[in-house]
Amino acid sequence: MTQKVAVLGTGKIGEALLSGMIRGGWAPADLLVTARRAERAEELRARHGVTPVTNAEAAKTADTLILTVKPQDMGTLLDELAPHIPADRLIISGAAGIPTSFFESRLAAGTPVVRVMTNTPALVDEAMSVISAGSHASEADLAHTEEIFGSVGKTLRVPESQQDACTALSGSGPAYFFYLVEAMTDAGILLGLPRDKAHDLIVQSAIGAATMLRDSGEHPVKLRENVTSPAGTTINAIRELENHGVRAALIAALEAARDRSRELASGSSNK
């Protein structure tokens, strides 16, 4: 871990990644950050011991550049970086919807690019980060990317053609669960429970269910059937979910998220 790594546009996810890397053994002296506001950069220095630099300095100094700016700002950032990035630098993009070819066409020929879609559970070291190689990225580049993002959760390699689907499922995925918890909390209140008690019941149930899904090796249908007694409370609830088209609505929602990711890739509109 002697290489210098720079996180450009360090927001919440970028800071979570820095924190995880430090816990994983990276020396703060080897970590560089850029931020739009000077006070934000100094805050990162004070909190983590990392070194604030300009985007140009990061490009010249770091062996690996992790670009975490918003998709609509990526073209401007690359225009600024391109004159300063040697072709042997590893570029890791965390921007939703933007393909590796977008970077390769704007940087020196042969520059290795890896595309990563992570999600907000990186803030609690439970991220799911999906990794895809660009045309010039090597096995060593992919392994290095896995090492970085493995510090805040799990990683999975996929072909880049599957990135839009992964964005819909995993990148946006936490929001769906938060939405479901919000709706179930409202239902608990309607059924007569105080909000705090309804919240605690649902959150612990969610943690328990997720742990069973992860650790049991059972198919989710089997786990659901284990809770569903004949003529019981659960099957009546499931019937209402089916009657209201919840399964179809989820599929349509994920398709909409995938389509939006494709729009971002095509540059047809801003996120």
Cα radius of gyration in angstroms: 21 Å
Strand order of the largest sheet: 3-2-1-4-5-6-7-8
The number of distinct helices, counting runs of at least 4 residues, comes to 12
The biggest beta sheet reads: 8 strands, mixed
Write up this protein.
With 271 residues, this protein is an alpha/beta fold. The protein has 12 helices and 8 strands. The protein has helices at 12-23, 38-48, 55-61, 74-81, 100-104, 139-149, 163-171, 173-190, 195-216, 220-227, 233-243, 246-266; strands at residues 5-8, 31-34, 51-52, 64-67, 90-93, 113-117, 127-133, 153-157. The chain has an 8-stranded mixed β-sheet, with helices on both faces. The longest helix is centred in the last third of the chain and has 22 residues, at 195-216. The relative contact order is 0.10. The mean pLDDT is 94.
